[in-house]
């Protein structure tokens, strides 16, 4: 574990590592994939990447962007991790829109059916996976923040949805009654 002196330095250091990882992945594979998260540190990391000169060493048109969890709210809601990431970073770099994979919004094709939305995202992950990875694609970087209660993605300690007996083989789940608002979320599982 690396502990940095303050949040700003942490964000700058993580941004540098993220950028380097994407460059290295593209050098090795031709493409790179990243799973984004939300929260204050993630937002600062996104802004630090956007502000760095090194960001131009990444071929953003060959970066696949996924999310590890999402607040199940209408598209464009400022609380959505997608909205925050677009504002802080994604709008500033020349991504291929076809490679940006936000989790469904609550006014999307499944409406407010979070279970159906989770299944839709699981199908998107599965369809992007290559041979040997039948449920999720190869992911170079998985960004995760840790909440005050120890939650990562939208898996909250002691919440029934976070128990392996609950999610089974599912790679994406709806989370209802989250202890931190908003109460309905979508989350990757450890699968
Ligand atoms: O679930 C959420 O609503 C948060 O976005 C959460 O997942 C976040 O990543 C951590 O709570 C760390 O947040 P901070 O970076 O703000 O400490």
From TrEMBL:
Coiled coil (residue ranges): none
GO process annotations (BP): carbohydrate metabolic process; pentose-phosphate shunt
Pathway(s) per entry: Carbohydrate degradation; pentose phosphate pathway; D-ribulose 5-phosphate from D-glucose 6-phosphate (oxidative stage): step 2/3
Key words, A-Z: Hydrolase
Nuclease found in the keyword field: no
Matches recorded under InterPro entries: 6-phosphogluconolactonase_DevB (IPR005900), 6PGL (IPR039104), Glc/Gal-6P_isomerase (IPR006148), NagB/RpiA_transferase-like (IPR037171)
SUPFAM superfamilies (alphabetical): NagB/RpiA/CoA transferase-like
Domain Glucosamine/galactosamine-6-phosphate isomerase: 6-189
Catalytic activity as recorded in UniProt: 6-phospho-D-glucono-1,5-lactone + H2O = 6-phospho-D-gluconate + H(+)
Top-rank taxon, per record: Bacteria
Enzyme Commission identifier(s): 3.1.1.31
The keyword Hydrolase appears for this protein: yes
One function term, GO molecular function aspect: 6-phosphogluconolactonase activity
Family affiliation: Belongs to the glucosamine/galactosamine-6-phosphate isomerase family. 6-phosphogluconolactonase subfamily.
Its job: Hydrolysis of 6-phosphogluconolactone to 6-phosphogluconate.
PANTHER family linked: 6-PHOSPHOGLUCONOLACTONASE
UniProt name for this protein: 6-phosphogluconolactonase
């Amino acid at each position: 574990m690396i502990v940095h002196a303050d949040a700003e330095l942490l964000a700058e250091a993580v941004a540098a590592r993220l950028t380097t990882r994407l460059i290295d992945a593209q050098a090795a594979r031709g493409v790179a994939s990243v799973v984004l998260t939300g929260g204050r540190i993630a937002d600062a990391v996104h802004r630090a990447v956007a502000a760095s000169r090194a960001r131009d060493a990444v071929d953003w048109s060959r970066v696949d962007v996924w999310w590890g969890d999402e607040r199940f709210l209408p598209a464009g809601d400022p609380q959505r991790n997608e909205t925050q990431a677009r504002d802080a970073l994604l709008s500033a770099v020349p991504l291929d829109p076809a490679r940006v994979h936000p989790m469904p919004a609550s006014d999307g094709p499944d409406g407010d059916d979070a279970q159906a939305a989770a299944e839709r995202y699981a199908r998107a992950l599965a369809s992007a996976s290559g041979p040997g990875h039948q449920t999720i694609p190869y992911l170079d970087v998985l960004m995760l923040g840790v909440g005050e209660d120890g939650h990562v993605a939208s898996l909250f300690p002691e919440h029934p949805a976070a128990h392996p007996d609950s999610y089974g083989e599912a790679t994406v789940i709806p989370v209802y009654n989250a202890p931190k608002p908003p109460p309905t979320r979508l989350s990757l599982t450890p699968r």
